[in-house]
Amino acid sequence: MRSTFLKWAGGKRRILKKIDTHIPKEINTYFEPFLGGGSMFFYIKQKYVPKKCVLSDINKDLIDSFKAVRDNPKKLISSLKYFKKKDSKEFFYNTRKKFNENKIFGVRRAAAFIYLNKTCFNGLWRVNSAGEFNVPYGKYKNPEIFNAENIFYASYLLKEVKILHQDYRKIIKIVKKGDLVYLDPCYDPLKKTSFANYTPKRFSELDRIELAKFIRFLNYKGVKIILNNNDIPPIRKLYSKFNIQEIFVSRSINSDPLGRGKIKELIITN
Ligand SMILES: C[S@@+](CC[C@H](N)C(=O)[O-])C[C@H]1O[C@@H](n2cnc3c(N)ncnc32)[C@H](O)[C@@H]1O
Questions:
Q1: Which residue in 4, 120, 238, 241 is a FRET match for 97, CA 20 to 30 A apart?
Q2: What is the rounded CA–CA span in Å between residue 240 and residue 261?
Q3: Separation of CA 186 and ligand 1 centre (Å)
Q4: What is the mean pLDDT of the chain?
């Protein structure tokens, strides 16, 4: 089974099998409104073949990279070849600067996004308050920047898929009874300095409460939900009426020492 073309912090690749037991056999429309690397989408699309899929995220460059894979895989690969050939510490910082100054556009920008994601420290996509990507070079000996076959296959899997740059709440207008919504929001940091700022706006306590309200509404509409989160008392309290399963996950991508090694996470379902 093929997986994502990105290396996304908080990626779900390692726990797909554990989440699998909660996936209904018949899915009308599959929604993934906190897309990230989209490893759950690639898994579900290959194993369950949902009738329709709607993928979305608030990170515009991430969404544009998915669109480039879907619509322009050949051009994207030829651009990625250039980035791979040029890869060095100096080239990374140069590309990062041009990227932040919006001097790279279109499919080439999507290639730059994938290049930066694959060569930066731990696949983090962290931005400062001005929205500038600020993760340092990862110093990998031989980073796998792309795999052409994987990109073509991802492109095939993404055909006919709706890919939207939007806040997760926007799906409320189109989601219906019998659909599946898989939600993997940015976790609450285990301590305040954790890296959870994927976008200029952090996921605050208020966001957590808003998300719980949104999920209760989906539940009321008869939508099947699967939510991943970390195991902290406020999360358990917010979802006390849902089914809660504990799982142990090894996390290597985490700048927070409390979050490294095996940590407990939750799979919350209705
Ligand atoms: C933990 S990551 C998802 C990881 C993904 N499941 C994977 O396997 O790679 C969370 C994602 O939520 C996105 N995000 C954060 N706030 C959001 C919001 N309000 N609406 C939509 N997406 C949001 C971030 O840009 C990030 O890509």
A1: 4
A2: 27
A3: 6
A4: 90
Residue 14's pLDDT is 80
From ligand 1's centre to the CA of 112, what distance in Å? 20
Give the binding-site residues of ligand 1, using a 6 Å CB cut-off.
8, 10-12, 33-37, 39-40, 57-59, 62, 167-168, 184-186, 198-199
Centre of ligand 1 to C-alpha 48, Å, is 22
Report which of 184, 179, 175 is spatially closest to residue 268, judged by C-alpha positions: 184
Pick the CATH number of 13-58+166-269 from 3.40.50.720, 3.30.300.30, 3.40.50.300, 3.40.50.150: 3.40.50.150
Tell me, what DSSP letter sits at residue 170?
G
Buried b (16+ CB within 10 A) or exposed e, 103-136: ebeebbbbbbbbbbbbbbeebbbbbeeeeebebe
Structure tokens at 145: 């920047």
pTM for the full predicted model:
0.92
Do residues 235 and 209 lie in contact, with contact meaning Cβ atoms separated by under 8 Å? no
* For ligand 1, mutation pick of 58, 61, 164, 210 (most atoms within 8 Å of CB): 58
pLDDT of residue 196: 47
CA of 40 to the centre of ligand 1 (A): 12
The per-residue pLDDT for 194 is 46
- Is 142 in a helix, a strand, or coil? coil
